[in-house]
Amino acid sequence: MSSSIKNICCIGAGYVGGPTMAMMAYKCPDLIFNVVDINELRISEWNNEDLSKLPIFEPGLQKIIAKTRNKNLFFTTQIKEMIESADIIFISVNTPTKKKGLGAGKSSDLKWVEASARQVARFAKGHTIVVEKSTLPVRTAEVIQSILNSSGSNTNKERNSFSVLSNPEFLAEGTAIKDLENPDRVLIGGEDETAMILLSQIYKAWVPESKILFTNIWSSELAKLTSNAFLAQRISSINSISAICEVTGADIREVSRAIGKDTRIGSKFLDSGPGFGGSCFKKDILNLVYLAEYFGLLHVANFWEQVIKINDWHQQRIAKIVVEKLFGTITQKKIIILGFAFKANTNDTRESAAIKICKDLIEEGAELIIHDPKVSPVQIEKELQIKPISENKNDDIFSFKNKEGNWRFSNNLNIFDNAHAVLILTEWEEYKYIDWFNAAQKMQRPAWVFDSRSIVNSELIKKSGINLWRLGDGS
Ligand code: NAD
Ligand code: UGA
């Protein structure tokens, strides 16, 4: 490691900033990593002595935090001080889809990135390498560079200079630690070769050199968007085929297995489910659509937009099937929702398929009981924008008077009494071991299990006397 690098700062202590810096600190014990955030609560959660109270749940994260925190990894709100002392600054802030103004609904809102760049311009000293870790529209590096160059408000007497690099993150939530420890590739885009080599030296502490790719900065930015677009496209493709399976007698699991054996296609990302969620797939495709439209490539824009349209349609399709199977009405029917996170092993609910599906079911009058092992009821309320019914309320179905439906949370699985149906939306391991014979005794008849993740043992369910609907099962 070059002696010119000692202090690393990361702006943004979120799902990317926290785990990424923790892994770097773990692998590079001689370097100091300061993760800063404007959100005081988030920083205090990262500093919580009780590691089960970290702001994000990610398998393996607690162990790494225990080994690095307050040794060479620090979480703080002292943004100015940490920027001043940094040799490398990662910008890892949120980049959601713009809600208003030019490009609303499609392009990324860069206000947090811009604010970060302004902070860096203001406080950085000497030569600083600024790294885009957030996923950004192509040519954002240009914007960052121009903010940095025109740092007229620079309070430092000393003249500062900057090299901007793109180093997108490819981790997936739920497997972030595994992905960071053994990445398929590390992508570094830029023009300043010295800066690129310095950044690559951090990764070389644990990533084989052959996996570290250098590209120009625009290819790096576009590769990140394209990578997410391709992954999401596979999910929309397989989900669209699941609908064909259901009407033709085919089985999506068999179709996936058969096509995945073709080495040109490969077996990953072929699990049909309730539609992709997560904070990035939709926003990154929308970004690509916006870029294509901006350059007048309307056929390209329409092609990628279709991936999102199929996903929306697919989520609505699931709610509709539940209603149809329950004799066309779910008013005052008790439906158990298993899983609210957008995938297993994370507490993240952003863009989770569960949000839309639960809202549709509530609108149809259902009384939902929502269980998730890692998502809090407060978080669910925030996503649904509907208050839960009181915890103390007798959960006998006849006590539900609200015709518009409602929901409440349960932190345990003793919830099958009088339920008409169970809808599995997240593939949490514990749902595989539910005692369906026991549940069948308690549920209303006819009872239904709707498995959108193909995780239950279909034979056991059928033997228990419960009707089973599985996504993409035409049998
Ligand atoms: P996040 O919302 O969890 O975290 C972003 C953090 O940045 C927040 O805590 C926010 O308070 C902080 N922040 C915003 N402006 C700030 C400022 N000016 N100064 C200091 N802190 C500031 O977001 P995330 O999920 O970590 O995603 C960050 C970026 O990484 C996004 O561009 C996303 O597309 C990309 N990405 C995310 C994932 C993922 O799995 N979540 C994976 C790869 C890439
Ligand atoms: C995704 C990418 O996999 C990461 O490489 C990328 O870094 C990240 O987005 C990002 O840029 O934010 P993530 O969204 O965390 O990661 O999780 P995925 O495993 O990709 O799952 C996304 C959604 O697709 C989930 O709702 C998941 O349940 C669904 N999915 C995934 C399927 O329905 N079927 C599959 O076969 C795989």
Structural notes for this entry:
The structure is a single chain. The protein has 475 residues and is α/β, with parallel strands linked by helices. The chain has a six-stranded parallel sheet, sandwiched between helices. A six-stranded parallel sheet has the order 11-10-9-12-13-14, sandwiched between helices. It has a two-stranded parallel sheet with strand order 7-8. It is built from 16 helices and 14 strands. α9 (217-248) packs parallel to α12. It is globular. α15 links the parallel β12 (421-424) and β13. The protein has helices at residues 17-27, 40-46, 61-68, 79-84, 111-123, 140-149, 176-181, 193-203, 217-248, 252-260, 281-294, 298-325, 353-363, 377-384, 436-442, 458-464; strands spanning 7-11, 32-36, 73-76, 88-91, 127-132, 161-166, 186-189, 212-215, 334-338, 367-371, 406-410, 421-424, 448-451, 467-470. Helix content is 40%, strand content 14%. It binds nicotinamide-adenine-dinucleotide and uridine-5'-diphosphate-glucuronic acid (UGA).
